Amino acid sequence: MGNANVGGREINIGQQSINIRGIGLMDSGGNDDLVHGQRVDDIGNVVLSQSNGTPVRIKDIARVYVGNVPRLGVAGKDHDDDIVASIVVMGRTQHTGDIVPKIKATIDQLNHDGTLPPGVKVVPYYDRSTLVGVTTHTVVENLLVGCLLVFIVQWVFLGNLRSALIISANIPFALLFSIIILVLLHQDANLLSLGAVDFGIIVDSAVIVVENIFKNFQSQAHHRDVLLKDFSDTENMDEGMHGRARMWRNWSPKIRTVFLSAVQVDRSVLFSVAITVAAFIPLFTMQGVEGQIFGPMARTYGFALAGALIASFTITPVLASLILPEHVGEVETVFVRVLRRIYEPVLNWALGHRKTILAIAGAVLAVTAVVFVNLGSEFMPALEEGNFWIRASLPATTSLQAGTDATRKIREILLRHPEIITVVSQHGRPDDGSDASSFSNVELFVPLKPYDTWKNGLTKEKLTAELQTEFANALPGVSFNFSQYIQDNVEEAISGVKGANSVKVIGPNLQVLENIATQIQTQMSQVRGVEDLGVFRALGQPNLNIKVDRDKAARYGLNTGDVTSVIQTALGGSVATTLLEGDRQFNVTVRLEPGARDTIDKIGDVKVAIPNGSGPNTYVPLREVADITLDTGASYIYHEATSRYIPIKFSVRGRDLGSTVAEAQKRIAANVKLPTGYHLVWAGEFDDMKVAAQRLAIMIPLSLILILALLYGLFNNFRDSLLALVGIPFAVAGGVMGLFITGLPLSVSAGIGFISLFGVAVMNGIMIVSYFNQFEETQPDKRKAMFHAATERMRPMLMTSLSACIGLVPAALSHGIGSQVQRPLAVVIVAGMLIGPILLLIVVPALQLMMNGQAKVSR
Predict the structure, then answer these.
(1) Distance (Å, rounded) from C-alpha 23 to C-alpha 197?
(2) Which is it for the CA torsion 563, 568, 573, 578, positive or negative?
(3) Long-range contacts made by residues 568-577, C-beta under 8 angstroms, separation at least 24?
(4) Which member of 77, 307, 424, 569 lies 3.0 to 4.6 Å from 574 by CB, making a disulfide possible if both were Cys?
(5) Residue 416 pLDDT
(6) pLDDT tens column, 207-251
(7) Backbone angles phi, psi at 483, to 5 degrees
(8) Distance between the two ends of the chain, CA-based, in angstroms?
């Protein structure tokens, strides 16, 4: 044993107890200063044997030197081929705002406290807080502009600055209420989804209450007195109800009017908010990536709506009683008068030509259905991160050293473009085994300058196309995949493959799998929109196989283990012991010198010891006991659920994901025949999109059933409940047209926009149906009652709809970093709330009149 310390217990010297230590550990000289740990004398002086009194040491038969573990990867930056790079991985439950400052502080400490060797410095090249900051700016800007637009809508419709301020006051209260609940429940909000919260929907309940207060204040004094008297009689506010009657008597007429106005719409508002929350039930059931993004939005929406409902019946009436004048002019704003002059003749004509209107509405829905079927589809819009994550796949058998020149050339091509800040490359795999990539794998992080500094006309898509062309010309046979830093990690976690999407050919035989994969690649290369297409090959790795011949080995008294241990030690190296150096430890590895193992012939000459009893060992060449052949075999075997598979990775650009995959599936089904025991699995974004669509197909009908049940609880009438739902298809039609006009495909984000439309559409339906029922009791002519109800509700319906619409106009028009996830949702809501209420105000009155029987004709 040449490398061990031992203990000899203690010895007493005087009154002291002294430990006895036998020091036999090898000393490298680096215990005090690690940079001096280069001494190998102790290792070289270890005695192996002796001959006639002469010791045989390690240094007599071997060369001892400080080496290194064989490299598995190389990192480079810009024009520097070799750097040391590291990645700090944040825990799933941590927050960027908390962790990044701590990391920066630690880096600053490392660079100044003498921990690092002289001349070495830690320099960050990617910081997620930059993306968070830019996204926060985009989201906050959209929210502030949305709030301002909502305020302007209220002012334009009511013509009263105080009323607009009362309504807008609900926004901060609702948000603060939501934040308080989230904090108490230890739940997180989400910047991407929080930007999609529509303040117009949040304030809809306040809009209804304030508009009703404002309408009653606008009414003539005698009409208001009649309302107050009727309400007092209805509520039995006599001497028998001492507390309430005394309170009613002590109130001023202004406060009584405010109270009456709020009570008039309390059931409608309460059920409208409950229905809006019920419409969001599908969002609470989302899982995976979409659940991570939109789950916080659903919770935020739900809590904010609850806060807005509380504010509508507490803060809103109080503010109205304090700052609204008791007498408001009866004249409507110019904008409302213009709308009314347009709407009343159209409504009158629609009520007289009900069948024609219904036919037109049916035609609109039919056209919408055709457009909807032809909309493209994708899983989620890609969040723009302001960078490239490029993966280059060199020939599968490329060595680490051979790939260095290609990696350098890729960096140089990228650095020619002034839009690129820097390029950091990762060639091969890390030494810790955390990413089992081959030497043919090169990944590059490419941060980009702000887009407003690029030359006119250049977009990220065009830059991608230019780079693809330059790469193809400079590096033929190398395939490239373009993604983004966070997006690439998410996509790989989803599909298990280094690519946005993949087709997995699953089966037992690798050769058959490769043949099928090649056929699929050929078919998919003919599909428009398929980019970055490539097969992750399993076969073709050159192997020098040394197969022990058991019969020959037995003649020399050797087992296979005796021979393979020589192969492992001589060619790969075996750890003999461990060298301690301060608080670190290093392996002492025994291996045949490079000059004796760098060719196949020299490997065949490696000596295998044959036991010879008590005498000296004799040796036989390795080729005498083993067959040495150069063959090809598997380089990487993918497994899923214990089955082998080969993936074909691809991205989709310039076309929607759904139609691209549909065409690819059709081509593969027609031209690729799968043997028995083999099947395909489509993984990645497409698979997630399909799962999300299946879940929504179940949850949306359940949500509609719950909404119908709430409506029945409000009206106690199945016919009126169905009429209140009529607005949904027209709002959806508007959203579909919005996607079609803007060229956006159907996605989970757009689907959430459609879900958001349900609540506002039903709220509008409730208002028009409720008012018709009220006027029908006092007006025998149903057509007049319908006309009066629709015209009375035109202003609040358009106020709620345009508030919900215009609050998301900034998000619908935004193209900044962080807006991509919100934009389809915003487009759907904006278009749905522009088109849906217009059709609702025309079609529902005609339909309700038809369902209530033939109206008496009155001129």
Answers:
(1) 71
(2) negative
(3) 570/597, 570/606, 571/597, 571/603, 571/606, 577/2, 577/3, 577/26
(4) 569
(5) 92
(6) 788 877 877 777 766 666 666 665 555 555 444 444 555 565 667
(7) -150, -155
(8) 117
Q: How far apart are CA 59 and CA 46, in angstroms?
A: 8
Task: Tell me the torsion sign for CA atoms 746, 749, 755, 759.
Answer: negative
The most distant pair of C-alpha atoms in the chain lies apart, rounded to whole Å, by 135
The band of 857, judged by pLDDT with boundaries at 50, 70 and 90, is very low
CA distance 653 to 482: 10
| Integer Cα distance of 131 and 373 in angstroms | 36
* List of residues 6+ apart from 382 with CB closer than 8 A: 484, 487, 820
The one-letter amino acid at 622: L
Spatial distance between the Cα atoms of 446 and 451, rounded to a whole number of angstroms: 14
Contact 353, 361 (CB under 8 A): no
Q: Report the distance separating Cα 391 and Cα 481, nearest Å.
A: 5
Residue type, 620: V
- CA 406, CA 50: separation in Å to the nearest integer? 53
Q: How distant is the alpha carbon of residue 498 from its chain centre?
A: 17
User: Any residues with CB less than 8 A from the CB of 522 and at least 6 apart, and which?
Assistant: none
Q: Is this structure's pTM higher than 0.85?
A: no
**DSSP for 566-605, written as a single string:** HHIIIII-EEEEEEEETTEEEEEEE---GGGSSSHHHHHT
How many whole angstroms separate alpha carbon 859 and alpha carbon 332? 26
Structure tokens at 530: 């398929």
Q: Which two tokens stand for residue 377?
A: 């589809």
Q: How far is CA 731 from the centre of its chain?
A: 27
